[in-house]
């Protein structure tokens, strides 16, 4: 992973480089396949323990009849090679990477959307502890307003932060969801927020089913955008009801050549193509 020209020099850690190798975004000659496959298993275990809804740990058992359990990535590759590939670790590693890249191990995400499940910043913004009564929150908000409100000469940014915290904590339902789930990342607004009323915490399946996220997940989420074959552009279409179709468009032809003539003075002047000839060329 240290090959010059393969990984940009601005990457300060190897974590991003390993993810690129796992997803087959860099050439196979630039990394050790066995180590990358082991790193994949370690990453799956790490995400599975912190956010189990974003990985399918049972996919390895269904595929190889071997659960990951508490094994490290290197140990899993070694045992898989002994049980299924006649001791050949390279073949075992290649199979694991290929199965993950093609979604045969199930829906998984190495980089789930960021979340802060134990966020308490809203309480700290008001200067109260978690679990206090609603009247204590209201009293703390009034004390902050006397000092931080822009009309009183306070900092507008700090006042916005306090006001947003009070908006969440003063709502019984929003406060309950905040205490239970913390903050989730909303890709539409590009910021963290509290779950809406009736909204479930995001999982890998809910993210994969959202428009615009299918291209980022393994497990059948990939959809080809367009293909060019024999001079035709083929664009697949998938309707909301599950219907499928495609559009075939003719590849653009070369523009008609302009004829040139030489005038009496010897200078070259471009001559426009006749309209009937232009129609014939365009078909």
Task: Give short descriptive properties of this protein.
three-stranded antiparallel β-sheet, single chain, 283 residues, disordered N terminus, elongated, alpha+beta
Q: State the end-to-end distance.
A: 53 Å
Strand ordering within the main sheet: 1-2-3
Q: Which band does the percent of strand residues land in?
A: 5-15%
Radius of gyration based on Cα positions: 29 Å
Number of helices: 11
Notes on the structure:
- The structure is a single chain.
- With 283 residues, the chain is an alpha+beta fold.
- Helix 7 runs antiparallel to helix 8.
- Helix content is 41%, strand content 12%.
Please give the structural blueprint.
Layout lengths: L14 H8 L10 H18 L7 H7 L8 H12 L4 H13 L13 E2 L4 H6 L7 H15 L7 H14 L2 H10 L1 E4 L4 E3 L10 H5 L18 E3 L2 E7 L5 E7 L8 E4 L5 E4 L3 H8 L1
Antiparallel strand pairs: 1-2, 2-3, 4-5, 5-6, 7-8
Helix pairs in contact: 1-2, 2-4, 2-5, 4-5, 7-8
Short description:
By secondary structure, this protein is an alpha+beta fold.
């Amino acid at each position: 992973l240290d090959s010059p020209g393969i990984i940009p020099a601005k990457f300060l850690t190897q974590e991003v480089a390993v993810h690129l190798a796992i997803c087959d975004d860099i050439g196979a000659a630039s990394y050790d396949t066995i180590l990358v496959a082991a790193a994949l298993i370690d990453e799956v275990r790490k995400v599975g323990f912190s956010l189990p809804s974003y990985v399918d740990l049972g996919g390895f058992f269904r595929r190889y009849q071997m659960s990951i359990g508490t094994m490290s990535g290197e140990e899993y590759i070694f045992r898989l090679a002994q049980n299924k590939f006649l001791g050949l670790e390279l073949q075992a590693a290649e199979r694991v990477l290929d199965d993950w890249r093609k979604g045969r191990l199930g829906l998984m995400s190495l980089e789930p959307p960021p979340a802060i499940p134990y966020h308490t910043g809203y309480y700290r913004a008001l200067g109260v502890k978690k679990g206090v009564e609603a009247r204590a929150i209201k009293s703390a908000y009034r004390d902050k307003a006397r000092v931080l409100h822009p009309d009183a000469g306070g900092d507008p940014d700090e006042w916005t932060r306090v006001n947003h915290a009070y908006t969440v904590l003063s709502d019984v339902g929003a406060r309950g969801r905040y205490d239970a789930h913390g903050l989730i990342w909303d890709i539409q607004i590009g910021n963290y927020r509290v779950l809406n009323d009736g909204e479930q915490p995001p999982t890998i399946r809910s993210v994969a089913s959202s428009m615009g996220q299918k291209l980022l997940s393994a497990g059948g989420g990939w959809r080809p955008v367009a293909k060019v074959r024999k001079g035709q552009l083929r664009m697949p279409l998938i309707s909301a009801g599950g219907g499928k179709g495609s559009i075939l468009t003719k590849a653009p032809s070369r523009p008609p050549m302009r004829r040139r003539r030489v005038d009496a003075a010897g200078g070259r002047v471009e001559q426009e193509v006749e309209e009937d000839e232009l129609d014939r060329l365009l078909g």
